Amino acid sequence: MGRRQTQISRSIVTAIHGEEPKPKNAINRIIRSIRTFFYIYGLILVKYRPELFQKLRDNVWNIIDSEYHSSFETDHDLRAMGDMGYSGSTFFNTTDDRYIIKSVPRVFEHSFFRDDLLEPYISHMESNPDSLLVRITDFLAWSYKSLGGILGFAPTYHLVMENLLHGQSEYSDWETFDLKPNSYFFPERDIAGGRLASQATKSKLADKFDDKMLLSREDADRFFARLEKDTELLAHYNAVDYSLMLVRIPRTTQLTAPSDPFRDPPTWRTGIPSQDNKYVFRATILDFFWAKHKVHAKMMTLLIKAWNLVDRQGPMSITTTPDEYRTRFLDMCQEIVAVRENRNEESEAVS
Question: Which ranges carry the PIPK domain (predicted)?
Answer without folding.
Answer: 1-337
